[in-house]
Amino acid sequence: MTYIHFIINPVSGDGRHSLSDLYIRQFFPADRFKIRADYTLRKKHALSLTASALEQNPDIIVACGGDGTINEVASCLIGTGVELGIIPLGSGNGLASHLNIPHDIEKSLEVIRDRRKIRIDAGRINQHYFFSNAGVGIDAMVIKKYEHSAGRMLFSYIRAAVASSFEYKAQPTVVYFDDRVIPIRPFMVFVSNSNEMGYSMSLTPDAMLTDGRLNLVLIPELSFIEKIALGYHILNRSVSRFKKAQHHLVQNLCVEMPNRIFTDAQIDGEHYKLRTNSCRISVAPAVLTVLV
Ligand SMILES: Nc1ncnc2c1ncn2[C@@H]1O[C@H](COP(=O)(O)OP(=O)(O)OP(=O)(O)O)[C@@H](O)[C@H]1O
After folding, report:
1. ipTM metric
2. 48-60 pLDDT tens trace
3. How far apart are CA 78 and CA 36, in angstroms?
4. CATH code for residues 2-115
């Protein structure tokens, strides 16, 4: 008997999906599968639901939602040996797209039933895990604005990005990795484990979830025209042609903003106000088993 526990975010994406316990059970014969499902009621609820589910010794816990829900569930699974399933119900669905998990609910349930596994890396920024990406530049402001917008859709994301590009003030920053010390006033300090940010956009189209490395993108302050060019390249996954972006493969780095007390960050597309001006970022290789 395989025990699969589903954690469903009822409001992810446009909030109009109808994934339910009853619907899921149709795909898993009762003589072979034990199925349980919980629904999240608020931000961070998937953390406590996953912790409670783990006490019942499931074989698989399935995050049904977007990158935010996946982050909450997957963060709890590290070191447990419990496998992660994903039903992509989010708006951006960056991680699921990288993993080629079908966006069709029925097909993604089949992926879980087939139980083909891979082990992927996780990123860490201070005490928080990330599986897709994290950033402490303009992307943190974009996500903060996006979270306050009426709907989580591509249009809201682009509107948040345009507004942030006028408002964002680069801070004096020092980035340390390997033997390098890079002083920069960054437009972006973006670290990615996956090759997609969501909505098919990417700053790191060559990133791999299994290489034991994170892809660091550093972009200095930009003129108005350069910001438009960067937006174009992100939408077209062609940032390698944007000459002001520096790309590095790293295992550990530190980002310090000496003039700040707190750091605005985005972690897997959720905004965080970190209570420090120093971020230690690292990769934890092959720590999560995912069904693909
Ligand atoms: N019942 C709920 N009501 C309000 N917010 C919720 C609820 N359940 C979960 N959340 C929060 O909803 C937010 C968005 O979830 P999620 O990331 O899964 O979807 P998304 O943002 O549409 O997708 P993506 O991150 O892929 O773009 C997360 O911060 C999550 O914690």
Report:
1. 0.95
2. 999 999 999 999 9
3. 21
4. 3.40.50.10330
Give the CATH fold of the 128-282 domain: Tumour Suppressor Smad4 (2.60.200)
Query: What Å distances lie between residue 46 and 40, 74, 126, 260, CA to CA?
Result: 6, 10, 20, 31
Residue 141 near residue 268, CB atoms below 8 Å: no
Query: With contact defined as beta carbons under 8 Å apart, do 159 and 149 qualify?
Result: yes
> Which residues are paired to 133 by β-bridges?
192
The reported pLDDT for the residue numbered 186 is: 97
Integer CA distances (angstroms), 276 to 125, 255, 256, 282, in order: 12, 11, 9, 17
What amino acid is encoded at 123 in this protein? G
Alpha carbons 264 and 272: distance in angstroms, whole number = 6
Q: What pLDDT is recorded for position 5?
A: 98
Domains of the chain, by residue range, sit at 2-115, 128-282
**Eight-state DSSP code of residue 26:** T
Give yes or no for residue 10 CB within 6 A of ligand 1. Answer: yes
Give the rounded distance of the alpha carbon of 250 from its chain centre: 18
Whether 264 lines ligand 1, by a CB cut-off of 6 Å, is: no
**Domain 2-115 matches domain 128-282 at the CATH topology level:** no
Q: Measure the CA–CA gap between 172 and 182, rounded to whole angstroms.
A: 11
Q: Which phi and psi angles does 105 have, rounded to 5°?
A: -60, -45
Q: What is the pLDDT of residue 55?
A: 98
Query: What is the rounded (10 degree) CA torsion for 140, 145, 150, 155?
Result: -70
Q: 């909450």: which residue's tokens?
A: 72
Indicate which residue's Cα is closest to atom 17 of ligand 1. 68
CA 202 to centroid of ligand 1, rounded, Å: 21
Asked if residue 270 has its Cβ within 6 Å of ligand 1, the reply is yes
Mean per-residue pLDDT over the chain, rounded: 96
> Would you state the pLDDT for residue 151?
73
